[in-house]
Amino acid sequence: MTSALVRSINSIPVILTQQMGRGDSRVGRQKIIATAREMGITRPLTDSAPLPIGAAEVTLVELTTSYATFASGGLSVQPHAAVEIRNSSGELVWRADRDLPARRRIFTPQVAADMNGIMVGVVESGTGRRAQVQGVQVGGKTGTTNSYRDALFVGYSSQFVTGIWYGNDDYSETNRMTGGSLPAMTFSQIMTTAHQGLDRRPIFGLTIGPRPAPGAPTTAPVPLAGVPDRPQVLSRYSLEVLGRIDLLLRDAAETTRPGPLSAGPARSLLR
Fold this sequence. Notes:
CATH class: Alpha Beta
Oligomer: single chain
Mean pLDDT: 86
Helix content: 25-40%
Structural class: alpha+beta
Low-confidence stretches: 212-231, 266-271
Largest sheet: 3 strands, antiparallel
Number of strands: 5
Strand content: 5-15%
């Protein structure tokens, strides 16, 4: 199972669907749909043979929300665009952590931890290697639709969940773009910036360190020509030190630009 997801072997989810239905794929697919609903997918899901490999249209927000269920340790997540709302007098009228629906348990902590280990394996040794963030443990999954019309990477750390989609508005094909290319690279760049100054913490149920998938070779991120190296993620202490240095430089006595050299005997700079 782990190797199949890390390497994006699509036949395995189909086989697992049959097993979940005790030989009846339709029963297995109904279980998939029910679980997707619990994880935040609200769009209609067609009960078809390719459903187990993601052949159903969902919004990027819903897809990202579903991955947040793993990052949260198996609890439901309600996406929202504001942390709090205040009126013109400054009085608090709505706050996310107080007024959103109570979170429900979707998976046991152990199931969430197992899935997190698999997702980290995708990034460390699978199709999502270009999503790696230096100094930050991240997991996620690549996605590529038929004819290369859509390329996605959805992933998370212990603090953020991010979904990336590339495609054309006219539904035309891309130039063979896959989820492990530009989407994964964009995820890496965004998450690198987002984690500046934050404490380094492992994803739920894991420890910080490499977790290569069974049978999958551990390799470094694939370098691309013309792409600059990713900056290291700075710790909060490092940012504080840089801030103090900046203040010292601002407070330092202003220096004056040296004037031109006074005219004197001509001398040669070459010896």
